[in-house]
Design goal:
Radius of gyration: 17 Å
Shape: globular
Distance between the termini: 50 Å
Helix content: over 70%
Low-confidence stretches: none
Oligomer: single chain
Order of helices and strands: HHHHHH
Largest sheet: none
Length: about 180
């Protein structure tokens, strides 16, 4: 029940971030337990996305499931690289959790919408990427108080890594497999 409440509060918090309203921090638990809850929710929805995809492509083996979950973890790594990349560009050490925790909830929304959209009308995924970039841009402006260049760096770096890392790893992995 508490996890459902955290999701509802995250939606309200994101609305406040998008509108630039004060007090959005109260909607997220910007603590270590809040980070743990966001991570648990991310992996729950990643698991559900794998289940949803298995209806179309088949149930993965245990090894395949572990690989898929590792690939989903790359999204969180992309988010962290985006945060630290923007912090490097901005030459500032803003607090990590006010950007990371709402960012994880944005990744959950991306995971849900991306899973549904790829099954229904995959050609619209670039629109979802643009929407995620806008969300992350607003997050950088509101949560980290970065200027437009720093927020754009954060948003673009994160989305490029988010989209490109799994594809790059897939291409690298298949290039080392023996030809059949």
């Amino acid at each position: 029940m508490k996890s459902w409440q955290n999701l509802q509060q995250a939606v309200v918090g994101w609305r406040m971030i998008l509108r630039g309203e004060a007090g959005w921090q109260e909607q997220f638990r910007l603590t270590a337990p809040g980070l743990a809850m966001a991570l648990v929710l991310f992996y729950v929805f990643a698991f559900l996305a794998v289940l949803l995809a298995s209806f179309e492509v088949g149930v993965p083996t245990l090894g395949g499931f572990v690989e898929i979950m590792l690939i989903q973890s790359l999204w969180l790594i992309a988010l962290l690289i985006g945060i630290f990349g923007a912090r490097f560009v901005m030459r500032g050490g803003n607090a990590l959790l006010p950007v990371l925790i709402p960012g994880i909830y944005a990744m959950i929304a991306y995971l849900i919408l991306g899973s549904l959209l790829s099954l229904i009308l995959g050609i619209l995924l670039p629109l979802l990427w643009a929407a995620l970039a806008f969300l992350l841009y607003r997050l950088g402006r509101v949560a980290a108080d970065w200027n437009p260049a720093g927020s754009a760096t954060f948003a673009l770096l994160t989305v490029v890594l988010l989209v490109g890392m799994p594809m790059t790893l897939y291409m690298l992995a298949t290039s080392f497999l023996p030809a059949a």
